Amino acid sequence: MADKGSAGHDVATREAPTPGTGTAVMASDRVENPGFPPHRPRVSDIDPVKERQNERRVAWLFWASIVGSVFAIVAYIVFPIVPGDMESVRYNTLFLGLGIALGMLGIGFGAVHWSKALMDGHDIPESRHSTRGSEETRDKAIEAFHLGNKESGFTRRKLIRNSLIGALVVTPLPAVVLFRDLAPAGDPVARLKHTLWDEGVRLTRDPDGRPIKASDVTLGSVFHVIPDGLAEMHEGKLEEKAKAAVLLMRLDPKDLQVSEGREDWNYHGIVAYSKICTHVGCPVALYEQQTHHLLCPCHQSQFDITREAEVIFGPAKRPLPQLPITVDAEGYLVARSDFHEPVGPSFWERSL
């Protein structure tokens, strides 16, 4: 049969199928929202003694985190890694790992125990609606922060708050000690201010070490360059190469804007600049022939070779150091001197 709906359209009616194997039956009645289950107070909610006990437990976990972080620093110093001694590597890794693990787990377990035992345990609905940046929304957000502070007891529970702040302050210290130990021994300024470049040192190709004649460098070409003799070095080779790596290019001399005192730093448009980016030390290796720009692939700093590698884009703060060059009696390119400033990122120039 057919019946007329309220809008005048035919509405087909039919009998419901008899449930059987493979037949899905859907109820037409809505299920009422049962709401939240009755709130069950925790022991900390009804017993002040238990509340103080849980508060002390949370604080002790945070203090354990502080102890673990300090222990990691002490272990790193007391059990140094001795080259060639695998026993020292095992002890250093074991105790350093235990200290860092205790520092991290102490904060994690303390925060979880705090939230489960002491923070407000009432269930709350989460509204799913779009928010707008109105004053009313701002006021509600501020109210929510105040309410969260009140329910968590962060301001009121000074023991937990102070121990947590102490743990958060001390936990990063092992990482600071580890990263500081990666710095060169002694004064980095003195180590980075001088490289293997010196007066008369030939420019050679990287990595085969073949010397480069001025006639080999054509307009638009670029060479990766290292000092003569570096290819045969073994002890400290990588460290010295990292400091002395250079990019060599040839431009039309008319395109170069040379500042006073640098008139003889290039040879008929051939210029050489440090390959180490002055931002964080990445290798600057991308050369655009048409624009004469050098690009650092790490953070996109760009340097204009026509203007003495001036920074034109990106986070780098100073130009690439220029290596003064000329030719010897045989026509090979040689350095006039070392760099006139420390190579590498700007922060390496600061004294410790």
**Gross geometry:** elongated
Tell me the Rg in angstroms: 35 Å
State the total count of DSSP E strands.
12
**How would you spell out the order of helices and strands?**
EEHHHHHHHEEHEEEEEEEE
CATH architecture of the largest domain, by name, is 3-layer Sandwich
Annotation field: number of helices: 8
Give me the CATH superfamily of the largest domain.
Rieske [2Fe-2S] iron-sulphur domain
Mean pLDDT: 83
How is the CATH topology of the largest domain named? Rieske Iron-sulfur Protein
* Unreliable spans: 1-14
Assess the beta-strand content as a share of residues: 5-15%
Largest sheet: 4 strands, antiparallel
- How are the strands of the largest sheet arranged? 3-4-5-6
Structural class: alpha+beta
CATH class of the largest domain: Mainly Beta
The span between the termini is: 93 Å
Helical coverage, percent range: 25-40%
Q: What is the total number of structural domains?
A: 2
Outline the secondary-structure elements.
Blueprint lengths: L1 E3 L5 E3 L30 H4 L1 H31 L7 H32 L17 H18 L5 H13 L2 H8 L7 H6 L9 E3 L16 E6 L9 H8 L1 E5 L19 E5 L11 E3 L4 E3 L6 E3 L5 E4 L11 E3 L5 E3 L17
Précis, in short:
By secondary structure, the protein is of the alpha+beta class. It contains eight helices and twelve strands. Helix 2 (about 50-80) runs antiparallel to helix 3, helix 2 (about 50-80) runs parallel beside helix 5 (about 160-170) and helix 2 runs parallel beside helix 6 (about 175-180).
